[in-house]
Structure formats: C-alpha cells, structure tokens
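Exercise: predict the fold of this chain.
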Amino acid sequence: MVKTRAMRTLENAFRRFGFHRIAGIDEVGRGCLAGPVVAAAVVLDPERYIPGIHDSKTVTALERERLYGVITRKAIAWSVASAQPAEIDVMNIHRASLEAMRRAIMTLAPLPDLVLVDAFRVPELMMAQRGVLHGDRRCTSIAAASILAKVTRDREMLAHHSTDPRDLHGIPPI
C-alpha cells in the first residue's frame, strides 16, 4: 500500500465554516476472526501539528506506538471504545462497529462540533457528521483515530495471546 500523508485540508475547510472541535473517528477489527472491534475518536489541536500521521495500515508497529504517545499527549480530546465478541455476535459486525464509534464519540470531553467518520455515518448521533471515503488516508484526525484504535486493539490481542498463546487451530506454538 502506498504511504501518503493524511492532510488537514478537509478539517481546515470545516474550521472556516465555524466548526472548531472536529473529531475524526475510525475503527479496527471488522475483518478479524477473534477479539473486539475497537473505535477511536480524536480531536486534534490545529495549533500543534503532529508529523508522520498516516493511515494505521501503512505505518509500522513501532511507529504506531510512538505516534500513539504523541497523539494522546497533543490532542485536545481523544477516546477509545470497543464492542466485544459477544456484542458482535448479537448485533452483527457492522452494527457493533457503529456502536463502538458512537461510544467513542460520546465519551469525548468536550464533545466535538463536527465528526468526520471513515466511510460511514454513525446512526443516532445527534451532532454534525460527515462520512469521508478513504478518510484514514485523507484526513489527519481520522488517521490519528485509526492509529489509536489499532494500537489499542493490538495491545489487547497481545494480552490475550500471553494468557493463551495457541494459534487459531488450537495447536500450541513450537
């Protein structure tokens, strides 16, 4: 995958229309066979540029970990929420992903003026929002959210693995 730097162009355009706290939101774990779906919401400070923010799929694990620390220190607000496997089984993966996104947004403090969502719109969210196709590649705030969600989910899956290191077929590692 080509590594392109996420831009602040869309966020800056919305700031000119009077939106000040713009949250980007993204999720990870939709295509996985195990574990939760994790969503993150991030409101970046337009005065504190963070270099190196790209879509989490194009950044190495080490760089994601570094960026996670920088984003959580410099962001105006950030939040992470998840939907666990039992919820996914009841709701289906799409609805569980949207619910995790809604939870992440609603726990931001302060709440955003506008939410930019990677690809979708979040139903029953009573605030301005816009779905952005390929948002994790196009918007810095969505790319930052993708990094927080990916690092959080990776950490959780590593913790699960340390307590039960079998692979998917139940065979212990050699």
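Check your answer against the key: The chain has one domain: 9-161.
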